[in-house]
Amino acid sequence: MPYPEEMVAPMRAELADNGVEELRTADDVKNFLERNKDKNAMVIVNSVCGCAAGAARPGILLSLEGDKKPDAVGTVFAGNDTEACNYVRSLVPQAPPSSPSVYLFKQGQPVSYVPRHVFEGGYPEAVAEHLRNLYVKL
Question: How much is the pTM?
Fold first, then answer.
């Protein structure tokens, strides 16, 4: 059962208000990746958990302040955007489902996956540094 939308709205807004595109359906994700198939893209699986609030969202936003970053950034919300979330996860079937998590794509192909354990107990600065190290490879 999805979380009440009024509960997740501020968590969605934290990313959306900072330029991250909301992807609520599988078609949204497909269209996002198709539009950006010649670029580098990131899809964030957002979550209600404490590590999403304390480390993932702030760390992701901090990482996007640098010069080297994905050309396009989208987000799905675990527990609410089920179809979209399942589609993103299907693109990297060897990666266990995890939220929050981050998927990086280079020219339409998945190249990096960052699971929940990277965010758990972490700090935004450490998350940002981890992601920046991955962006260099894009």
Answer: 0.95
